Amino acid sequence: KVGTQAVGAWAAGGDLNAPRYRWMGGFGTTSTGIVVGGLYTPGYSASALVEEYNGSAWTEIADIPARADNWATGTPTAGISGTGSTSNTVYEFNGTAWAVGGDYPETCHRTCAAGTQTATLAQGGAPPPGSYSNVTAEYNGVAWALGGVYPSVHANGAQCGTQTAGFAIGGYNPGTTVDCNEYNGASWTETTDTNTGHGECGGSQSGTTTAAMVVAGAPGTPGETEIWNGTSWTEVADLTSGRGAGASVGTSGSAMYMGGSPVSPGVLTEVWSDPVYTIKTVTVS
């Protein structure tokens, strides 16, 4: 028997319909992914645009009230997006339209979030004017409650996992950080640092505490990608076009990174594929 493992790599996907950056997360997969809002360029104005990916191309769907520096998580039929543009408003998506959900406990932007529409975990962010937060908040589909305080004040990181098994990576505080922390539903515990700092980064929005990805970031690490196996980080293939402040969806085995800065052209989608380790039987004659 022989074990084989192909090398993970980034490949070009379909371009977004409009160039955007300054957004965190997204929801869905590489064959059904949704991105929400962002900062539209040129013009540098908050965007109301929501786009859905079918595995090859993006289609404009139901708009949301314009917002940038917002987070998004959930699924294509039960998504949620909140804060951004120094707001505490949260919106829920049912696959067709957006409706107002429970207000976030803090007026801020650049917050990180993961989980589902009825069990969202969010933390960090940048309340005005120019400060950083260590607030953790949990959503039950109706209202938010405060959770365990995050170990540091920061914003613009990556996050994955669930409300009772969350994983937060990198960010700014205000320098680019290598910090990673796990959440058990009550408190955060610091775990192994990434190899390099990642601020304004993306990642495996649907990843777990034992299988996660962080990608890109700025400044200093515009295209570097790292994979987490529950114990350590391994640097893998860089983005083809290094940038930061993009949206992201997927897992550490199958993910997408969209838009980002430098903002020209700002419509790029890159798709990550990490083939599964396989064992083959070899017959010798």
Architecture overview:
With 285 residues, the chain is mainly β. The chain has strands at residues 2-4, 9-12, 20-21, 24-25, 27-28, 33-36, 39-40, 45-46, 50-53, 58-60, 71-75, 78-82, 90-93, 98-100, 112-116, 119-123, 136-139, 144-146, 158-161, 166-169, 180-183, 188-190, 202-203, 212-215, 225-228, 233-236, 247-250, 254-258, 269-273, 278-280. The mean pLDDT is 92.
Can you tag this structure with a few keywords?
285 residues, mainly beta, four-stranded antiparallel beta sheet, 0% helix
What's a quick, concise take on this entry?
This protein is mainly β.
Radius of gyration: 18 Å
Secondary structure tally: strands: 30
**Would you identify the regions where 5 or more consecutive residues have pLDDT less than 50?**
none
Mean model confidence by pLDDT: 92
String of helices and strands: EEEEEEEEEEEEEEEEEEEEEEEEEEEEEE
With strands numbered from the N-terminus, the spatial order across the biggest sheet is 4-11-12-13-14
Strand content: 35-45%
The N- to C-terminal Cα distance equals 14 Å
List the helices and strands and how they pair.
Layout: E1 2-4, E2 9-12, E3 20-21, E4 24-25, E5 27-28, E6 33-36, E7 39-40, E8 45-46, E9 50-53, E10 58-60, E11 71-75, E12 78-82, E13 90-93, E14 98-100, E15 112-116, E16 119-123, E17 136-139, E18 144-146, E19 158-161, E20 166-169, E21 180-183, E22 188-190, E23 202-203, E24 212-215, E25 225-228, E26 233-236, E27 247-250, E28 254-258, E29 269-273, E30 278-280
Parallel strand pairs: 4-11
Antiparallel strand pairs: 1-30, 2-29, 3-7, 5-6, 6-9, 7-8, 9-10, 11-12, 12-13, 13-14, 15-16, 16-17, 17-18, 19-20, 20-21, 21-22, 23-24, 24-25, 25-26, 27-28, 28-29
